[in-house]
Each structure stands twice: as structure tokens, then as C-alpha cells.
Design brief:
4-stranded antiparallel β-sheet; mainly beta; 11 strands; 59% strand
């Protein structure tokens, strides 16, 4: 079993910055991909960014240049640093770990950007 615990999030004004972290525990294999997804009210969950265990990253076009994903393999933790936040970034942000074709999700953390 794998458990993901997210922290961070909250309320920030447009143009501000915020950081999220997600710690994975349980049966974590060396090779995996961790990432962040988000879901706004009335919309489907969408990819924000992913990072593989060697460090390869992938970003949604909407966050490129503003968000940075990173990870600490020793701590099985993934981070998302968000700059220049916009009201349209408001959503519940979910952490995901994929290993051996299995997906594990965190409980989600709310990010609200006020205009």
C-alpha cells in the first residue's frame, strides 16, 4: 500500500506564490513518477506537472514558466512551487504517484487565488 499526504495550499492574492508538498509512504519502488493534478469546480481533473524518479519533468502549457516541480527521492516527497498565481489556478490540487502501472492519489489540498 502507498499513502500520499499533501501539505501547503491556502489563499493567496493574484501574482503571489505558494508551495505544495506531498510525502509518500509505504511500498515505494525506486522507479516511479510523481506529479500534481488539479480540479476546479465543474471541470475535469487536469495535469499540472510530473517528475520521474531520475528527474525528468513535464508541465501543462498553462503553468510553464510559473510553476516548478521537484522531488527528494530520499524522502519520497514531491514539491510544487507556484509563482505568479492567477485566479484561474484556483482548484483542488492532488498529488499522484504512479508505479508499476498503479496510480495512488492524495486527498487533495485547496489552492485559492483571489483577484
Amino acid at each position: 500500500q502507498v499513502q500520499l499526504v499533501e501539505s501547503g495550499g491556502g489563499l493567496v492574492q493574484a501574482g503571489g506564490s505558494l508551495g505544495l508538498s506531498c510525502a509518500a509512504s509505504g511500498s515505494i519502488f525506486r522507479i516511479n513518477v510523481m506529479g500534481w493534478y488539479r480540479q476546479a469546480p465543474g471541470k475535469q481533473r487536469e495535469l499540472v506537472a510530473t517528475i520521474s524518479s531520475p528527474g525528468s519533468t513535464n508541465y501543462a502549457d498553462s503553468v510553464k514558466g510559473r510553476f516548478t516541480i521537484s522531488r527528494d527521492n530520499a524522502k519520497n516527497t514531491v514539491y510544487l512551487h507556484m509563482n505568479s498565481l492567477k485566479p484561474e489556478d484556483t482548484a483542488v490540487y492532488y498529488c499522484k504517484l504512479r508505479q508499476w502501472a498503479n496510480d495512488y492519489w492524495g486527498q487533495g489540498t485547496q489552492v485559492t487565488v483571489s483577484s
